[in-house]
Amino acid sequence: MKRILTFGDSIMRGVYYSDEAGRHKLFGDRFAALREMGYEVTNCSVMGATIGTASTLVAKKLTSPASDTTVVFEYG
Q1: Is the pTM of this model over 0.90?
Q2: 22, 58, 62, 72: which has the fewest Cβ within 10 Å?
Q3: Are residues 41 and 6 in contact, defined by beta-carbon separation less than 8 angstroms?
Q4: Are 34 and 4 in contact (CB under 8 A)?
Q5: 76 near 12, Cβ under 8 Å?
Q6: DSSP 3-state percent helix, strand, coil across the chain (nearest 5)
Q7: Do 46 and 7 meet the contact criterion of CB atoms below 8 Å apart?
Q8: What is the pLDDT of residue 39?
C-alpha cells in the first residue's frame, strides 16, 4: 500500500473560517479520494505551525518511512 504523510499549517490541516458558525472549523476527510484509491494518508499538519516548528514535527513523526512513503510539505 502506498503511504502519504502530510506536514503543514492550518491549510493542509483543513481549517477554515465559517461565517455561519462564527469560528474556525475543520473540513471533513480531505483525503477521502486518495483513501478510496488505496492510499494510506496520515495528516501530521498543525494549525499555526511554521517552518520553524516543522523540523520538530518531522523528527517526531517521520522516524523511518517505508520506501513506498511520499511526504508532502505545505507551509505558508
Answers
A1: no
A2: 22
A3: yes
A4: yes
A5: no
A6: 25, 30, 40
A7: no
A8: 95
